[in-house]
Amino acid sequence: MSSENKTALVTGGSKGIGYGVAKTLLQMGYKVAVTSRSLSAAEKAADKLSDYGEIIGLEADVRNFESQKKVVNELLDKWKRLDVLVANAGIGHFGSVEDLTTDQWKETIDTNLTGVFYSIKACVDALKESEGYIITISSLAGTNFFAGGAAYNASKFGLTGFTQAVMLDLRDKGVKVSTIMPGSVATYFNDNEPTEEDAWKIQIEDIGELVGDLLKMNPRTLPSKIEVRPSQPPKK
């Protein structure tokens, strides 16, 4: 997929994986919009990345469909087309089902699963027109369950299956769909602060590189579900 005059929307792009993906897309020549629930965070990220290309930061909450439609309309008003959606925004609440609150459950499902549906639904007409690409960021937690992961596992298992169904729905419309399922990533997820001790983990630029590779893939070939792990995790 040539990047000339093409545009991308990255949800949750103010930090972490979304930030790394946005940087790669800019370096490839895409015009990029990054979103965050915080306008100041989105604009700060866009300012930091502006040396790499044309980028805007927009406020949006993936849990609100009207918010997602507004962002897509803003992007289309500015750039007249949308070629790539990277549905990255996510959250995690962890703990035994005995302790998990109903609010934590709802926020996790609404963000990680329903939010991706809203993002795709808001973008699908524009992406059909451009014969574009949808990439969702799931997790190895979308195929490997663990204690304390009831809400997160449910959201990511759902996202993995949802994305594969969307791939089948849209491939005859010219839209490619893939999901990336990372393991341990050195990121700010859940307010964690990456340190030198996280050097063994997948880095955000690695996920950015993977997104770039998908976009450069010959259009006859579709890697629809990609698991990615640290190559040398610490021995237990």
TrEMBL record:
InterPro entries: KR_dom, NAD(P)-bd_dom_sf, Sc_DH/Rdtase_CS, SDR, SDR_fam
Ranges of residues in domain Ketoreductase: 6-186
Any Pfam family hit: adh_short
Protein family membership: Belongs to the short-chain dehydrogenases/reductases (SDR) family.
NCBIfam families, A to Z: PRK07326.1 (NF005594)
Protein name: SDR family oxidoreductase
Lineage of producing organism: Bacteria, Pseudomonadati, Bacteroidota, Flavobacteriia, Flavobacteriales
